[in-house]
Write a structure and sequence with these properties.
This protein is α/β, with parallel strands linked by helices. It has eleven helices and eight strands. The protein has helices spanning about 15-30, 45-55, 85-90, 100-105, 110-120, 135-140, 145-160, 185-200, 205-210, 220-225, 245-250; strands at about 5-10, 35-40, 65, 95, 125-130, 165-170, 210-215, 235. The chain has an eight-stranded parallel beta barrel, surrounded by five helices. Helix 2 links the parallel strand 2 (about 35-40) and strand 3 (about 65). The radius of gyration is 17 Å and the shape is globular. The protein binds phosphoenolpyruvate. Phosphoenolpyruvate binds next to strand 8. The site of phosphoenolpyruvate has 14 residues, from strand 8.
Length: about 260
């Protein structure tokens, strides 16, 4: 069975219109393995620019557009928010939900994350659900408990069958933007736990969900991380802002055979 592999770029509040065109032209030259897809997630104002650049460059179809957040509401008086429908109209196919920066700086709870996942799925957007433990949670042996508690509200909201349409990104908070990467063995062990947790609900679904690793992945460490049995790709922050480095990561991904 082949699982889909995904390399996703989270630009956070970085990037520019010129980086959009450089990235689109750069990625168009990358030779991707069979079951590998690439998702670029710039800030909201750059989404349509990506879509137009992709049309102009005739971008390979396995390179797609993602957003970094979405409202749980459909429309209405929610100043500053962006709806699923707006993302669809802008050419978006994926949306990052529950990034640790959203959870910690904007107080997004796992319940809210679950609601956002549900509205994204209703709109036919693929959610990239981020989960991960803090350094103190890992040190005190609570990692598995934290990850289960982040996933359970999503399972309760959408049901396990719908996980066939989601992507999960395991991002240890202590590894995000710090240059400290989880070792391939530690990352594999945690990914295996996540898959087993899902398998307790539904084995077939668990075997199909792409599990991405995020946390200081770069051109130098991606090969070993992506070689692990339960790591199906990466969510990449800092290294995704450098076109040449991101291209190396994309072409390293082989996907699960
Ligand atoms: C992220 O923000 O999702 C991330 C993984 O960032 P970085 O690669 O910079 O650690």
């Amino acid at each position: 069975m082949k699982r889909q592999s995904i390399i996703a770029a989270n630009w956070k509040m970085n990037g520019s219109l010129s980086l959009i065109s450089e990235m689109v032209s750069g990625l168009n030259q990358v030779q991707l393995a069979d079951n590998v897809n690439v998702v670029v997630c710039p800030s909201f104002p750059f989404l349509t620019a990506f879509t137009y650049a992709a049309q102009d460059e005739n971008l390979q179809s396995r390179i797609q557009l993602g957003a970094q957040n979405v409202s749980e509401h459909q429309s209405g008086a929610y100043t500053g928010e962006v709806s699923t429908q707006m993302l669809k109209e802008s050419g978006v196919n994926y949306v990052i939900i529950g990034h640790s920066e959203r959870r910690s700086y904007y107080n997004e709870t796992s319940t809210l994350v679950a609601q956002k996942v549900a509205v994204a799925l209703e709109a036919d957007l693929t959610p990239i659900i981020c989960i991960g433990e803090s350094e103190s949670e890992r040190e005190s042996g609570q990692t598995n408990q934290v990850l289960s508690a982040q996933l359970q509200p999503v399972i309760d909201e959408i049901g396990i069958e719908k996980f066939l349409d989601v992507v999960i990104a395991y991002e240890p908070v202590w590894a995000i933007g710090t240059g400290k990467t989880a070792s391939p063995e530690m990352a594999q062990e945690t990914h295996q736990f996540i898959r087993e947790f899902l398998a307790m609900k539904q084995t077939d679904v668990a075997n199909k969900v792409p599990l991405l690793y995020g946390g200081s992945m770069n051109a130098a460490n991606c090969e070993q991380l992506l070689a692990q049995a339960d790591i199906d790709g990466g969510l990449i922050g800092g290294a995704s802002l450098k076109v040449d480095e991101f291209k190396v990561i994309c072409s390293t991904a082989k996907g699960y055979q």
